[in-house]
UniProtKB/TrEMBL annotation:
<protein>
    <submittedName>
        <fullName>Uncharacterized protein</fullName>
    </submittedName>
</protein>
Length: 113
C-alpha cells in the first residue's frame, strides 16, 4: 500500500519498528511515509475517534477501532463518497504496471506493450 500523500511505496523493512505510520482516512486504512510525516501536518488529514479525538485508528473487517480508547464503529463506505476522498483501488493494476516498468529497467528492455 502506498503513502496516501505522495504515493511512495514501502521498501523491504529493516529490523525493528517501522518508520511508517498507519491511520484511517475516509474509513480506509492508509500509510504515511517518513518523508510526509516530517514535511506535512499529516494528522489533520486523518479521521479521528468520535469518543476521544485520537487519530490512532485502525480499519479492519468493516470496523474502525480506536487504539487509544478502544471505541469501535462500523466503517461506512457512503462516507467515502460524501467526503469527496478518492477510493483506494480494489485491484492492483497500478502495482503490476510498476513491477513491469521496474523489470523493464532492470532487464534493459523497451516499454511493455
Amino acid at each position: 500500500m502506498p503513502c496516501f500523500r505522495c504515493g511512495a511505496r514501502q521498501t523491504d523493512p529493516v529490523r525493528g519498528a517501522s518508520p511508517w505510520k498507519r491511520g484511517v482516512r475516509a474509513d480506509r486504512q492508509v500509510l504515511i511515509c517518513p518523508g510526509c510525516q516530517s514535511a506535512h501536518d499529516w494528522a489533520d488529514d486523518l479521521d479521528s475517534c468520535a469518543t476521544c479525538g485520537s487519530t490512532a485508528l485502525v480499519c479492519r473487517l468493516g470496523e474502525v477501532e480506536c487504539r487509544d480508547c478502544g471505541h469501535t464503529r462500523d466503517a461506512a463506505p457512503a462516507d467515502l463518497v460524501a467526503s469527496g476522498a478518492q477510493a483506494v483501488p480494489a485491484g492492483d493494476g497500478d502495482l503490476s504496471e510498476e513491477v513491469a516498468a521496474a523489470l523493464n529497467r532492470v532487464l534493459r528492455r523497451g516499454p511493455a506493450t
